[in-house]
Amino acid sequence: MAGIYLHIPFCKHKCTYCDFTSFPDRLSFAEAYMACLYKEIELRGEQLGSYTFDTVYFGGGTPSVIDPTYIYGAVKQIKRRLRLSKNPEITIEMNPGTVSEKKIAVYKRAGVNRFSVGLQTAIDSQLENLGRIHNVRDYLYCASLLKGENFSADVMLGLKGQSKEDVRKTIEIAAESGAKHISMYALTPEDGTPIYTDYLNGELPDGDEVARLYDYGRTLLKEKGFSRYEVSNFAKKGFESKHNLNYWKRGEYIGFGVSASSFMCGKRFTNTFDLDEYMKCVLSGFLPVIESEDVKEQDAKFEFVMLAMRTVYGVNAEEYRKAFGSDWKEDFRDAYRKTSRYLEEENGATRIKDEYLYVQNQILAEYMN
Ligand code: SF4
Question: How far does residue 18's CA lie from ligand 1's centre (Å)?
Fold first, then answer.
């Protein structure tokens, strides 16, 4: 299994917590940028001739802020230059403040069959504090346009003044609006973002409080029929994200666009983060890669275990043996011994017990050593 990621780095406005590669002041470059993205796909085309890709993911930034015909064109270019499997999963991230019936119709014509909507919270004052351009009414309008479609809603925890009641309201709105998948993740206050000041001032909930909100949200999601399949991801049966599952299975993926990263043929590589450099490079016929490294076997083994432990499927001993020719419990003997009380076995796989999945980072730190 292999995936394709396309980065659309434009937004209407920079959110207060955002440290993603997004350029709110460069929207007028969208047409030129997309032409470069098509060109990058062409440049890679030949090298990737032996691959069949099962998933395509438009992430950002805000892919839904640009003219939808550019998304249509990107899918067309992928089909022309690369090989897609018969029924690929094609996802687009959408900001509820940028959607319209016409846009969704064009996405569907392009073959998009999964939508990821950034709700974040159902409390308008919190959305405003995050610098989001949408409010709850915009989300509900977006969800009404997506009625019957396979769509996911993002929910954020750890917001200023956020209570359990706020989390309940958010999850209920997401579930009742028809989402088949919910990603629930904690806000990370990154140094250099405006929200970092709130963090320094002690205005954001601390780690224990966020863990309590998470546990509360997890229980509520379960009651509503969403099963957790990864630490931050919950889905109705059969609606898990194939694209993300490929990452956690350490599958290969190719990234296009500014700042996009890739993992192919045992190498991890990353494109430039500079928009002008990206465009100049591609227009001159060069790949915009700035960093590339071969993954050493020891790192590959750790990645395999770390990624698998994020999911409820855990580390499959047979798959590990197939990949590396050894027994993972032997390769990580000390770490396994120290952490075994947090683990459980099922069908040849070892996973973190449900109640400890949220604190997996502490458990996995043992494996890093
Ligand atoms: S919409 Fe997403 S990418 Fe854009 S500024 Fe907000 S958080 Fe960043």
Answer: 6
